[in-house]
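Standup notes
- DV: blocked on the single-chain target, sequence here:
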Amino acid sequence: MSKKLTRRELAAAASFLIVPRHVLGGPGQTAPSDRLNVASIGLGRQGMFVTMDLLARPDVQLVAVCDVNKGAKNYVEYSENATLRAARKLLGPGYESWGEDLASPGFAQLSHEFRTSLGMGGREPAKRVVEAYYAGHKPSGNYKGCAEYSDFRELLDKQSGLDAVYIATPDHWHAPIAIAAMKKGKHVLGQKPMAHSIADARRMAQTAQEMKVTGSLPVNNPSTPDTKLIASWIAGGAIGRLREVHNWSSRPFWPQGMPPPAETQPVPDGLDWDMWLGPASPRPFNALYQPFVWRGFVDFGCGSFGDMGCYSFAGVFKILDLTPPTSVESSTSGSYDETYPKASMVHMDFPTHNGRPEVRFSWYDGGLKPTRPKGIRKDDERKWGARGEGILYVGDKGIILGGFNGESPRLYPESDKYVSPPPERGEEHDYAVDQWVLASRGAGPAPLAAFESQVAPTEAFLLGCIAQRMPGQRLDWDTTAMKITSSEAANKLIDPPKRGQG
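- DV (later): unblocked, structure below
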């Protein structure tokens, strides 16, 4: 009689008196019939974290997970055991030692410059998190309702009651999976970048429109207070006539500017390597491709520009009401045909639009940065440090300087009329995911990061990715014809062939 009850036993005992409101629905809650049934496809680091965010939402039910990898502990993390610690925090009290077998094996030196902590990922660890979370929120303490798939096509064909999918695969799989899902009538939350090619981005937007489904990116920049503030300052004449925008990233911190690995290694147990390659050309397995380093390979990722430009461009296009650029050119260092460069500067010219003058946008990565303005505050000086990032709007009467995504903007010369408000306090909201869930449930308007609105920003930074592969060439862009008119070689990259086509 003196034995202590476990957390689950306490929950079961309490269930005779109290039924959790989220099970029944009710004021402030979402009834089960109103929830969005979602499957997560791609369970690496990013996929695991967003899946856990979706799990915590009362208006979402995670019904399935899908990944070509059964499970592994070789996924890149930003701190040791970050994914496992996040899972335990989500699961709550009583789960402090949950998943000890999923603990990090330590650190790995993936290249001369890139050392990282490794952590858990794959469909089986994801399924365990999903079922543990829902079990902890049921009176019985049991839940076995999460299906598991290795092939997204089987998921789309067999999973009953599926409303939507979240896609967090490597970039080259984004469009094929999203289009297949939308053609099945499923809503899609697709990780950035939207697509691996300009033609695929347009196909994604067209399919979403034709199928009347909600496709969106989890990119918050169009919705943030900082974006709205910068837009109001520029529209109000705070810096006069806008001339230039400069945006710099500390990426890549994964290796780029290198040849592909020459060594053939055995495929790890539980990984379908051919399916991972998918639309890309076949090649022998090498651990360098996985995890995360794939971002630097042109067949799989979009380099630092695709990784980060999708964020900043979503905000800049909203602020300036940009249309696609008319030309783009780059200067790079450390280039190979198979990978993006170690460092680059990319310059884009945007045409006049709705009374706004022409704008030149310049992108910097790999440690390169624009000239530092004189007279900026000491805390803004950090943006030019080794890991500094920022954005700079230059007008003929002043400048606006902010963090990479425009956060905490400051006007120079400073003015009492244009002052940054203090940072918002309280609970943080994921604007983009909130908007996608509401729209997918038919309870809200189209998200500001919907596929249809993100085609133009995606088109722009993917043109930058093409320019990075052809340094020193000016690429003239005809957006109406979807054609690079100045280079046939570059034009072939607008809609490159995929394995299995034709």
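- Follow-up: Confidence is low (pLDDT under 50) at residues 1-28.
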